[in-house]
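Most newcomers find our protein records easier to grasp once they have seen one. The structure tokens are whole numbers drawn from a learned vocabulary of backbone shapes. The record below serves as our worked example for the rest of this section.
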Amino acid sequence: MSHYALQFFIVKLADAYTMILFVYVLMSWIPNKRGILSDVETVLGKVCDPYLNLFRRFIPPIGGMVDVSPIFAIIVLEFVVRLIIGIL
């Protein structure tokens, strides 16, 4: 696999994970999830929460309610991807 293909794959993988994080955050605003929405949130939680919990340990919710850790998680993810691409 060429360097460009590897770089493309890493960027697209990070983009997909960023979209998954974004959907998970948006779903947290939907009250009373039942049925398929509940199942989707459970699956997304299993994929997103381990990464987000790294930031939630250090970044408390603003006003006790607004969780800004996804913002920092996405920024760090993008920074790491750019760093990896720069190294390759």
In short: The radius of gyration is 15 Å.
